[in-house]
Every structure is written in C-alpha cells, then in structure tokens.
Design goal:
single chain, Rossmann fold, Jelly Rolls, 11 helices, globular, Galactose-bd-like_sf, hydrolase
Length: 661
C-alpha cells in the first residue's frame, strides 16, 4: 500500500468537534477538511459508529479520512451517542435515535460554511448497515453512499439468524458490544471532572442485547424496521456496495445490484471483514481511489466514468489447498454489465436417483467445527479449514471428476424433499471442492430451519414422518473448480458452532435433492482492473503488547465433550500523539457433546484497558449461554476498575422461551 503524504489540498484536523443534537446531546466528531474549505466549500463524508474514534477505529480512520480531505472533502468520523467520547446512552443497534442522529449530523454538516451542501455517508459493518438505513430515510443532503460488508435484511442476513436458524454470533456479538461500549470517554476530551460521571452513567444503563434479540426469533416488525429489502425504492442516493468472499456479508452486493433503482454498483473481492485497501487475502485494490471516483461523480458532479462501470465486479477465486488462513487467493476479476447476468446459466444436478430409498441424515452435534468464523476479522486462523472432518459426519454426494474447469458465480440452491422425526429440525448444506487427494475446500454453504420452509415470519412445525419440500439458498460465491477436481454436496442436520442446535436429536429422511448451480462462461483473465492501494500516513503508535490469535479444539475422552477455545489478543498500543494506551483481549469457549444438543454452551470473557500517565481503567465482561428443550438461558456481568479498584459491577440474567428454534 502506497503512503500518500502530499495531497492536492492541505489538510487540517479537528480531533473533538462537538455536534449538538436537537435534544441537547453532544456527539464528539473527529473532522478532517481542506485548510481552505471556508473559502472554497467542499462536500462532506460521514462515518457514524459506536466503535470509538479515539482508540477503536483509529487505525483505519488514519488511512482513510485524511486522504479524502486531501482530495477536497470534509471527512467526519462521529462517535454514536453512548459510545467513545460522545454523550448520551445507546439502547440497541440501528435504533431510531441512532438513525435520526445521523440525519441530524448530515443536516448540520450541509449547513456549515465549509460544506457545499452535498453529503455522502460510508461505513463497513455497523457503518455499512446504518448508511443504507439512513439513505432509506432520504435526508435531503445525502446524495451518495458507500456501504461495505453490510446487509439488506436484518433478520435473514445478519449476525442474528440465518435461514431461520439461530447463529451463535447473536450471543457472541451481544457479548462483544457489552465490552466495547463499557469503556469511558477520554479524560483529555471529556474533562478530568466529567469523564467518570459519564462513564458510570453509561455503565448503569449499558444493555446486554442478547435477550432482546432472542425475544424476536421470527422475522417480525422488530427485524423489518431497518431492513431495506422491505422497500428498495426508498433508497434514492447512489450506492456503491462492496464485500468479500471470506466475510459473512457476501450476499448484499448482489441484492443491491439487482434491486436498487437508484444508481448502484457492486464489487466483491477475496477479502475478510475489512476495508479492501488493507484487507486480506490479497489482492487488495485501490479502494480510496475508487471511493473518490464515486464521491466526485455524485457529490461534485464530475464525470469520472463510474456510471459506465459494470454493474457487478467480482473476483473469481482459484482452488487452493484448504487452510485456516490464506494471505492471498489467486484468481481473476470478472465484470458483468448488468446484474443478474444473462450470461450465468443454471445447471440442475439431481443428487438422488428417482426411486432410491430415502437417505438418513443424522449428524453428531459436533459437525461443523471445520466451518470457521461467521465473519473472519483478525488476519488469523478464522477461515474454514479442510472440510473432511465435517464431511465424515455428513451425508455426501460426490459428483464425477471434472474434465474441464467451471466458474461458479452466484448463489447455488438446493431443492429438497425431506421428512423429520421431530417437529423442529435444521438442515445445513455445504458445497465443496474436492481435490484429487481428497482434501475438501468449502465453496459455499446454506442453513435452514425447516419450520421456516415457507416463511420466516410464520414458521410451521413439522409433522413427524411427513415429507415436505424446501429450498436452501447457499451464500453467493465466485469460485473456479479446476479439471481433475470434483464437487461434493454435504448434508447435515447440525452445524456447530455456526448455529445453535435443535432441542432434540433429529433424524432426517432425504428423499430428493436437486442442486441448482450458477455457471458462468470460463473467464480467460482479468476483465476489469483496479489501481494499486493508496492511503494516508498510518497511525503512529508504540506497541506495548503484540497481537495474537489462537484456536484449539479439545475432546475430553472421559466425558465426550468437545470444546472449541478461542483467544484473540488484539494487543496493546500507545498513541504517540495523545499518549492514550489501549488494549483488548477476547476469549470464547464453545462446548457440546456429540450426542446431546442440550449440552451446548457458549462463554465469553473480554478485557478492555485504557491508560495514560498513571491513570488507568479496565473493564471485564463475562457472558454465558445455555438452553434446555423449552428455553434459552443467558447471563452476563460487567466489572469496571479504576486502577485496581472495583468501581462498578452489574449482573444480567434472562430466560427466553424457544419458539420452533
């Protein structure tokens, strides 16, 4: 990545610009803009997040926002209310208050003498979600959006539920946010006599969101609010949607490119949950240059050629040896002028010959340990590994060895006819690339709670022994399977720890299955190119503790319990400008017995530290989730320390009834 230090316009920074909301709440913003913006007003770009601009997202902010400012933009990074250096309280993700605050910040920015009245909004993950939701509210000044690693459907394609199955990330992310939002504002910004009061008030009102999310197990009004798929036409700003094949949010780009009526383009690379100018696996792209093309067209009215760009640009990954981490993925960029593409044809593959007896699917509860993280994040061992261990616990349909390579581009689907011996059952289907020596690489997967076969809003219990039809949609992918390899389609009724298990062991009788495979004519090489990455000067820090990530799977030979232990030590660094040191460690354990779905448990423990010149604070958060046949049980705890003194503690405990889950 090329570091740029000289820009067309000189940049000035305001580290704590206060923006007062209509209710009097002060939001803290870090703002970069051209030094002469007051004389030559510029468009504004907003990123609105709970992740702490002072010490949370500062690594990526430092690369990105000064770059935009140097090219003629006011780049605004706001801490949401109740987080970082902002006042107020947060009660949920994507609340009406959060979205209204963003609209108010947009109106504030547009009215400033240094702004020309045009505003864009961008973000990744949370910021990618809320910029789409804010766009649907149509604030007058918002003209363009760049949304990365986001969703159009808060129920069906987020960290809560997938295919009507409960993702363990529902609990895991609630634990993460409990930790993230437990930290105080920086005393240098909030004031020596004020930061502590703000912190304690924040802690006293801090929500643990897992119980709330578990109270909405079906696609009800709670999830519909903020799901822009409810009305794509509400989006009138121009949208650039970007994602990565190694991220959990890989479907949104296709959904937006296919459904948005406003100007829209999509880009999908081989990346994890990161901005693509520093993401991995490589190749990276010049994301900031692409962003400037988008901003210049829609915020400055400059013809940059983006209107003529292909509707959908995707990186078709080559087959590689399975591994928990890939620093790079060989492949090529393909381009589709329109999306969906008429060039992509569906091949139907019947997996079960007509007249064959039903095939029994009854997986051990531990099937799924090779699946990797829902959204890999740490540049560490989080990707799906060799699928052979999970294949051995699944029913597999191996296809003939390919005599010619194929490019799979799109969302594979599997139509099934199946019966269950229990009123609730899950099915997981994986599409794999099997190497000549038997190694199995995951291409895509999909899961479905079979009670949701007709509706996520109105699920229907299965009648034991009754055969039903269902459609399982796998995630979007772009993957080349070479000649000499074969496809494997693997069926299981457990996928731990990606989804929470059914309340009882289940037997499925699979009587019919058809794979619908989206095939694109074989790409000859790159059909589109991107510039090499550029960025502003990186964040200047001193490393106090190096980052490290570990994953361990252990089987207790006496009890039979299988435990996945995860430690993500994000390290500790000191900011060389303002001196604040911050550190973070996450620990997770996921345990289950292969024969007992009610043995499933998840535990998390997060440590956050902040310090400067003898001042220090620390928060410890703990959470646990279990279930019986009727209920989910979750509990959590916050401990906050000033120095070594415990200054706050709080416990959460909830029991939530299961509803066909």
């Amino acid at each position: 990545m090329k570091t740029v230090t000289e820009f067309p316009r000189k940049v000035v920074e305001f580290p704590d610009m206060g923006i007062v909301m209509p209710d009097g709440c002060r939001l803290s913003a870090r703002v970069w803009m051209p030094a002469d913006a007051a004389d030559d007003p510029v468009p504004a770009i907003l990123e609105h997040l709970p992740y702490r601009k002072r010490d949370g997202t500062i690594f990526r902010d430092q690369l990105t926002h000064p770059y935009f400012a140097g090219h003629g933009y006011a780049s605004i990074r706001v801490d949401m209310r109740g987080n970082g250096d902002s006042e107020g309280l947060m009660d949920d993700e994507y609340s009406e208050q959060e979205l209204q605050d963003a609209c108010d910040v947009i109106a504030w920015a547009a009215a400033q003498p240094w702004c020309n009245g045009n505003v864009g909004m961008m973000g990744i993950s949370w910021g990618g979600f809320n910029c789409l939701q804010v766009a649907a509210k149509q604030p007058p000044a918002l003209k363009a959006v760049i949304s990365l690693c986001s969703t159009v459907d808060r129920y069906a394609d987020d960290i809560h539920y997938k295919g009507g199955c409960l993702l363990i990330e529902n609990f895991g992310w609630a634990s993460t946010m409990l930790s993230y939002s437990s930290r105080p504002p920086d005393p240098l910004l909030a004031g020596d006599n004020r930061w502590r009061d703000l912190w304690l008030t924040r802690l006293e009102n801090q929500p643990f969101l897992a119980p709330l999310w578990l109270q909405h197990q079906h696609r009800d009004a709670y999830w519909k609010r903020g799901s822009i798929c409810e009305d794509y036409s509400a989006i009138q700003a121009a949208v650039l949607s970007i994602g990565g094949w190694h991220d959990g949010y890989r479907n949104t780009i296709s959904h937006l490119a296919a459904n948005i009526e406003a100007p829209v383009k999509g880009i999908v690379g081989p990346w994890i949950h990161k901005y693509p100018h520093y993401a991995a696996p490589e190749p990276r792209i010049g994301f900031l240059q692409e962003a400037l093309r988008w901003w210049d067209r829609w915020l400055k009215g400059t013809d940059t050629g983006v209107v003529a760009d292909p509707a959908y640009r995707a990186y078709v990954m080559d087959s590689v040896r399975p591994a928990r981490w890939h620093p790079e993925r060989p492949g090529r960029w393909v381009a589709e002028p329109v999306w969906p593409s008429p060039e992509i044809k569906t091949q139907d593959i019947e997996l079960i010959p007509e007249g064959r007896k039903p095939i029994i699917v009854a997986s051990p509860q531990s099937c799924g340990l090779a699946g990797g993280e829902y959204f890999p994040f740490t540049f560490g061992p989080e990707l799906p590994g060799d699928q052979c261990p999970d294949d051995a616990l699944s029913v597999c349909f191996d296809q003939p060895v390919l005599t010619e390579a194929i490019d799979i581009v799109g969302a594979p689907e599997v139509l099934v006819r199946v019966s269950s011996d229990r009123p609730q059952a899950n099915i997981a289907i994986r599409l794999c690339d099997v190497h000549p020596d038997g190694a199995s690489e995951l291409i895509s997967y999909g899961v479905l709670n079979l009670t949701h076969r007709n509706s996520h809003e109105f699920p229907e219990a299965l009648v034991p022994g009754e055969t039903v039809g269902a459609r399982v949609v796998l995630d979007q992918c772009a993957y080349r399977v070479p000649s000499g390899h074969r496809l494997r389609i693997a069926f299981s009724n457990a996928y731990w720890p990606m989804i929470w298990p059914s309340p009882e062991p289940v037997r499925l009788d699979l009587s019919a299955a058809t794979l619908k495979l989206p095939l694109r004519p074989l790409a000859k090489g790159d059909e589109v190119t991107f510039p090499t990455p550029e960025a502003a000067a990186p964040w200047a820090t001193e490393t106090l503790r190096a980052a490290n990530s570990e994953r361990h799977v252990n089987c207790d030979e006496k009890t039979g319990m299988i435990t996945l232990s995860i430690v993500d030590d994000f390290g500790e660094v000191r900011d060389l400008e303002h001196g604040l040191a911050n550190g973070s460690i996450a620990r997770e354990t996921w345990a289950i017995h292969p024969d007992n779905p009610l043995s499933a448990s998840g535990k998390t423990h997060w440590t956050q530290t902040l310090s400067r010149n003898g001042w220090s604070v620390r928060t410890e958060t703990f959470a646990e989730m279990r279930s019986d046949a009727q209920n989910f049980m979750v509990n959590a705890r916050i401990e906050a320390y000033e120095g070594e003194k415990l200054v706050f503690e709080r416990n959460f405990e909830d029991k939530i009834p299961r509803a066909l889950l």
